[in-house]
Structures are given as C-alpha cells and as structure tokens.
Amino acid sequence: MSVSFCGIELAHPIINASGTFDAIAARRAFGDGLISDFPFAAFVSKTVTLKPRQGNPPPRLWELPGGMMNSIGLPNKGLEGYLEHDLPELARLPVPLIVNVMGFSREEVGRLVAAFGERDEVAALELNVSCPNVETGMIMGADPRETAALLQHLRPLTAKPLIVKLTPNASDPAAVARAAADAGADAVSLINTLRGMALDPAGEPWLGGVTGGVSGPAVRAVALAQVHSVSSAVGIAVIGMGGVSTGADARGLMQAGADLVAVGTESFRDPRAGSRVAAELANLTPVPAAR
Amino acid sequence: MSPDRVQAPFGRRAVAVIDRTEYGPYVVLGVSDDTGPEPQAGQFYMLTAAERWGGGEGERPFLPRAFSVLRASNPAHPPPSHRELQFLLHDVGPGTRRLCELGPGEELLIVGPLGVPFAPPRDGRRLLLVGGGVGIAPLAILQDQHLAETVLLGFRDAEHAEAAALMTQARVATDDGSAGHGGLVTDLLEEELHLDAHREVYACGPPAMLEAVRQLCAQRDVPAQLALESGMACGFGACFGCVVHTRDGLIRLCVDGPVLDASRLESVVGVGASFEAGRLTRPPIRRAGMASGGQA
After folding, report:
1. Which ipTM score applies to this complex?
2. Average pLDDT, chain B
3. Residue A173 resides in a domain
4. Which of A10, A48, A90, A131 is flagged as catalytic?
5. Of A136, B216, B231, B239, which has the fewest CB atoms closer than 10 Å, so is most exposed?
6. Which of A287, A222, A289, A230 is nearest to A256 (CA)?
7. Domain count of the fold of chain A
C-alpha cells in the first residue's frame, strides 16, 4: 500500500487531519507504544502561528448526531516555541512531518513558510487558509484571487511541497483549488470543518467561541462531494478528509479522487483509528479513481 | 525521562462487563481488563459501549465518556485470572444512560488508564477525603491504595447516600438531612480541620463543593488536591477541548489533570463544561480570555 505523495514516500495512504492528534501529548499518555505502532503514514502538526495563542475560552466541545463541534481557537506555542520545544520531539517520530501554518497576512504566512522551509525535519507545509487576512478582511481561502495572491507570495520562499487546506465554507472550493494549483501549490487538502453553532436551553451560544467547526461522520457526504468536485478541477495531489471512520470511507474518498486520506475526529474515539483504517483499506479491493 | 503516571496501552481495547450493582440511583459497572496495567488513584478511562453507541437522545452519544476508576482489583494469582476495574455511573445524559443499561456479558471499549493521579501527602500529613455525589469514585481507590482514616461524603439524600457503602468508615452529609449530617459535607470538613489541620485534603465532587473545599483549605493553609471534570472528546490530549482556567492559563485536564493541586486554581466556579449533561453544568462563558495571543 506504499504511496508517493509530492515526492515523499509513505508506507500507506492514511495520515492525520491537522489538529486532531497531538503526538507529544499522546506519548505522555501511551509511552513508547505510540511510537512503535504509530498510526499514521505522515504526521500533520496542529496549526502553528507566528505568536503564541491561548485559544478560545471553554466550553470548546459539543456533541452532535454522528459527530461533534469544536471551538478550540488554534492554541499553540508560536513559531519560536514550536521550533524550540515541539519540532525536536516531532522530528523523532517514525514518519515524515508536515507542519500546518496560519498567518493573519501574506507576510506573516511567508515568515512561517520560510522558517520551516529551511528545516530538514519538515517534509512539507500545509497552509491553513481558513483565516481572515487582516489587510483585506477576506478569508484567504474563501476567494480564488486571495488564494492565488498568497501562493504567489509563498512559492518563491521554499522548494518544499505546499499543501493548501481548503475551507468548505467557500462558495466554490474547486475554483479556489484551481487558483492555488495555477499559482504553484503542490497539493490541496479538504475538507476543513463546517461552521456551525449550538445553543444552550436558555438560547445562549454554548461554545466559548460562539461558533465552531462541525466534524465526524455527519460531514462525510459533504467531503465526498467536495473531493469529487476539486479533484475533477485540478491535476495536483488531493488529500481527502471528512468523517472517515473505516477503510470503506477512505476508499470512497479515493474513488472520488483523493490520493491520500486523513483521519480526524475518529482518532478521538479510537486513538489507533489511523492504523485500523489503513488495514481495512488494504483489505478492500482497490478501485481506480474516476477522475 | 521516567513517566509521571501509569501509561495506557496504545489504543482502545474490548473488555467484558462482569458485574453490575446498583447503589441508590448509581450503577457500579465491573469489567474484566486482562491486558491493562494497574491504574493509580485519580486516573480515568474513556468508555464506549461496543454496541449501540449512538441512537439515544438527540441521536447521541457519539464520543466516548471519561470516568475515574472507582476500584481496581489485583489479579490474585497468575493466569488464569483477571483484573477487575469498576466504574461509578450516574445517568445524567445519553452516554451515561447507555452505559448504565449494560449488564454482564456485554462489551465495553476502553482507553486507559489516563491522566495525572493523586500525589502522596506532603510532610507526613494524614489524608482527608472529601467526596460529593458521583465524585466519590476516585476516592474509593485512593482509600484502597493509601491509608485514609477520614472520609467525608456528601449526597443529595438518603437514597443517593447508599453509595457511601462503597467506602469504609465514611461520615455522610445529605442536603435534606435524610441521612447523616443535615447540611453540606464542607460543614464536616470544617469540623475535621478544626480538630487537626495537619492534613492533606483529597476532594472530588460538583464544582460548588470543590470551590468550598478549596476556600476552606486555602484559609487554613491546608494543601488540597482536587479531581476535576470537564467534557473531553479524546482523553489523551488530542482534541484540546477539556481545557480549564488555572493561574497559569488554560490547561488540558486530560493530560495535565484531572487531579490538580488546589493552589493552581483561582476558583473552581465555572470549571468543567460537560456536553454529556449540558443543561446542568454549563459554566459561564469567560470572554476575557478570548483575545488572541498570550501564553498557553
């Protein structure tokens, strides 16, 4: 089941979705068993920003039929803290490391990409573009021109693969994907969470961040449709994700055009979900993607 | 670096229910865990029913639920034998409801033991255990593993107080006076600390009780360890959902707790949002911490 993704050799096509697995915390909980039985073929980090972020106030979680909603707010140690504390530990994982970054302007994303671009420990970069550009007020990944301008700024800064994590909260994700590919992106990944909201019985927002991101099996059909639409529109590699709980779900996204599949929410229920999905996928009859 | 806790086998494992006993409105579920290590008092497990997890109220549950281990037996003899883990359940939402339905022969999927356990008492202090409602769970295994002579338990009424039988020599308080002392368990704590303040307090229960314990102990310079609760999706630091406010900022209760030294908390009020029983335990939203930046 080994696969090549943007020149990176992977043991199988299952990776984790950014922000759904903290390998450092998991090692504290599970010890070396995590390393000898690492569940993903590559490890995608949680989003790193230039400055440290505490994240959103609790409550941060809500449970839904067939899924959940989170309002975490991208807590992280910032670039400096990540380079000092997290990168050395993550570099010891037995799989390639993909670092997810987000900035509030093109220049900020550029500084992150340049900093990680020169580190040998980093195999590729994923761009979280579900964030407003404070200079234009637009969500970078919601508009094809914003996305193209971002990629044009970033492309000269690194030779490492650049993966654009598309937001499903855009009117036309395929158009954004095309703009990213034309401006030099090596791959796209989708879907990110869908914006949602929950109320308490008094009618007040439950989540500390007011709105949150919906994930889990509840969004699988949306993921399938968007992966199909995007992979039909671009020739670059596609990482599909959204509600994958089984090998059959992963195969579905691959049939819709995904080259790799990421497991997210299911890892919360089953820490070894990545390995299980990969094994189930390997036991299914492969069906070539119709793209 | 040696680990600061007993670590869980990586992954989720199936265990069989071997015992189900009711204590008033509570259910003690015993499972046979043949492969896991002996947990430490204060550690917890993530539980999922192997069958029909989903399809309850609101088409939930979906996520596993976190429970402190109530008691863990040691395999008396090498094989064939098993380690029994017990959990104390109270039906307050779709997850606990489903778990309370389980009986012998049915299966659970568990991950654990997880989290930071209770620490031994400082300076030769004697242990003083204070529990409220379903929060007595981690105190039973603590009493098993350490010598704890003084146990104070608070319940709503005599029916709920049947769970006091899970511990030995417990003094009981009930809100309605139908069993033991009529009033708060912290009334009993005040009496005990007045008699002898060279104690270390170990407490678990509803946030209002824990806050009263925290204040009493802080006023008397008595160290206290509090086992907190917060709704968590994963239990091993992946989701960042179970954060609670501490003097050092927000921390993940699953990997940096659930046991916290009381001195780390400004207040227990508003700590621990639980999606399981959202209507009951929702804390006020603290928007002051929402600004971007700042140390985590």
Report:
1. 0.95
2. 91
3. yes
4. A131
5. A136
6. A289
7. 1
Q: Is the pLDDT of residue B135 over 50?
A: yes
> What homologous superfamily is domain B13-114 in, according to CATH?
Translation factors (2.40.30.10)
Q: Which fold has domain B126-279?
A: Rossmann fold (3.40.50)
Residue A59, chain B, CB below 8 Å: the answer is yes
A131 is catalytic: yes
Measured at the alpha carbon of residue B134, what is the angle toward residues B132 and B137, in degrees to the nearest 5?
95
In which band, very low, low, confident or very high, does the pLDDT at B147 lie, cut at 50, 70 and 90? confident
- Where do the structural domains in chain B lie, given as residue ranges? 13-114, 126-279
Q: Which of A90-99, B27-36, B140-149, B260-269 has the lowest mean pLDDT?
A: B140-149
**CA-CA distance, B245 to B265, in Å (whole number)?**
7
Please, which residues bridge with residue A195 across strands?
A213
Domain residues for the domain of A109 are: 3-282
- C-beta atoms of A269 and B237 within 8 A: no
* Nearest one of A49, A39, A1 to A17, comparing CA atoms: A39
Question: Does the beta-carbon distance from B60 to A33 stay under 8 Å?
Answer: no
Q: Are B260 and B225 in contact (CB under 8 A)?
A: yes
Q: What is the CATH number of the domain that holds A34?
A: 3.20.20.70
The reply to whether A287 falls in a domain is: no
Residues of chain B contacting A29 with CB distance shorter than 8 Å: 7-8, 114, 235-237, 254-255
Q: Tell me which chain B residue has its CA closest to the CA of residue A207.
A: B285
Q: Does residue A291 fall inside a structural domain?
A: no
Has residue A180 been placed in a domain? yes
Mean pLDDT confidence for A207-230 = 96
